[in-house]
Amino acid sequence: MSIGIIGAMDIEIKKLKERLENITVEKIASMNFYTGMIDKTEVVICNCFEGKVNAAVGAELLISKFNVSCIINIGVAGAVEEDLNICDIAIATSTVEFDLDTTILGYDLGYVFGVNKVNMECDKTISKKLYDISNKYGRATLGTIASSDKFISDENIKDMLNYKFNAIAVDMETASICHVCNLNSIPFSAIRAISDTCSNMEYREFLNIALDKLDKIICDYIKLINA
Length: 227
Prior knowledge:
Blueprint: E1 2-7, H1 10-19, E2 21-28, E3 31-38, E4 41-47, H2 52-64, E5 70-79, E6 89-97, E7 120-121, H3 124-134, E8 140-147, H4 155-165, E9 167-171, H5 174-184, E10 188-196, H6 207-226
Parallel strand pairs: 1-4, 1-5, 5-10, 6-8, 8-9
Antiparallel strand pairs: 2-3, 3-4, 5-9, 6-7, 6-10
């Protein structure tokens, strides 16, 4: 079994990358892929860069080139659900690409061709295990994560995402990775630490605290599946 871990920013994957034993590095499509062992499990970590297209390319390479058995997306996100606070954990049960807009053709906002739906499902088993582990480190919430090629700081968009899609968090990569995994029938989930509330808060202030929590959760997950 080989687990693919994908994060947009190097800082999001830095702690896990440092845990890899017998590490090898391969650069493809300008992205670095780090292969090694964590607790007797092969892990391939991709630093895909920000944005939906970059994330999709990274995910496809993890599947087609590195033959991973599943993919987990890690990183930070903005809270959409009002009850989510800084450093809480959002775990995806489904995802939405809300900037896909063919409503003029009669489709619903976010409708994904090929997958042929708006809400793309994540793997229930992975999501549930991540949720159970996350609750040891604070508050965790399961739900829909929305993605677009825009850093959301508009309260009106935040309210729309919560009302229309029942989204709990928003980022720039999760839904596109889920899109690729759905097309390839590869199990996928995403775990995001809340770094901002989609307002004018400076997310970098909380980045290291949030990512330290993610590192612990992923390591516990790997130990769990090896038990």
